[in-house]
What we know:
Elements: E1 5-8, E2 14-19, E3 25-32, H1 46-53, H2 65-70, E4 74-79, E5 84-91, H3 96-107, H4 113-132, H5 139-147, H6 162-166, H7 170-180, E6 186-192, H8 196-207, E7 230-235, E8 242-248, H9 257-268, H10 274-282, E9 286-293, E10 301-308, H11 314-330, H12 335-352, H13 356-368, H14 374-383, H15 387-397, E11 403-409
Parallel strand pairs: 2-6, 7-11
Antiparallel strand pairs: 1-2, 3-5, 3-6, 4-5, 8-10, 8-11, 9-10
Helix pairs in contact: 1-4, 3-8, 9-15, 11-15
Amino acid sequence: MLQYHSFTLSNGLRFIVHEDDSTPMAALNVLYNVGARDEHPEHTGMAHLFEHLMFSGSANIKNIDLPVQNGGGENNAFTNNDNTNFHEIFPARNIELAFWIEADRMQHLNVTPKTLNTQKKVVVEEFKETTLNEPFGDVWHHLSEMVYPTHPYRWPVIGLKPEHIEKCNLDLANDFYTRFYRPNNAIVSVVGNVKTADMCALAEKWFGSIPAVEMPLRNYPKENEQLEQKRKVIRGGHPAEAIYIAFRMGSRLSPDFYTTDLISDILSSGQSSRLYQNLLKKKRMFNSIDAFISGTIDDGMFVIEGKLNDGITLAAAEKAIWEELDALKNTEVEEYELQKNKNQVESALVFSESGTLNKAINLCFYESIGQLGLINTEMDEYNKVTVADIQRVAIDLFQVDKSCIVWYALD
């Protein structure tokens, strides 16, 4: 059971502290409630751009990496559809450095023409490297727009096109920063060899004077039910043929989230999973195959992806995948198979809470979805899932008319 203390500053900044005297380290994570879904359709990629800009220096810290290195620490960040996280890990005696760094760039980020142009080039180059020049790198552009016709999940975190980043100017950047990187739009967690009373004092010292702002109204559109299958064929320019099948699923807080997650594990978690055993090992149709979920705050995506072996047609590969999905719909899984996957989930959850930084990130995430207590009870939700639940959700989820399919063909 992970013990924690939480409190909120007068400016709305939420803090969570977990004391752990078994380690000499301490981690601080800042979650901003801003991700790709908060961007304007003509200015996508902004949240990811700001992940980079937040390392460009602030009023009192010209080079953020320098105090981190001098304090014996490490820092990093990541962005997704729903939020952005920045974190540091230090020897616990130096954790105040993280408070100083994060407070300064929350209030005094130094966005100049030079820093903006530098980071725009970095992000555009990343777009080219990971999306335009990487095999199958553009798949999220295709799948996202098929699964989400109206919701801002329809563009990936990297952005819709590099031109959106290239056209970002100082006014757009400063507006995005002012609207979203505020204390009342953030959560901070501190985990490690610290005392809650000390962290309360540091929180007030470094963050207490940062003013809150009125947050913009967020009204993300709800997708209509998909009534017919969507298909796209991408021809040429790839090292092999591949298939992607996506279905829109419920949100991270939907009642069937845990069932859907277990379905993805039954299909592809490890070498004993169904897709691996039946389609890769026995039939030798694929050289890799996987199933996974997005776990987003709004309606998510269930994806099956496979790279084909030579001599296997895309039509045959797709047919084989549908046969595996139909098997889940038509026959209840055995209790031992479900329990095996629950055991694997429990192991993964325990591992995710074994590191100081992982705990800090997880605490912020659960608080961001309004379910902080889940960090201690989530396995209970997985254990509630029955074989009947697996079949019921599979029947509802894996419908031909609700599928979005992308083929990568060699010609």
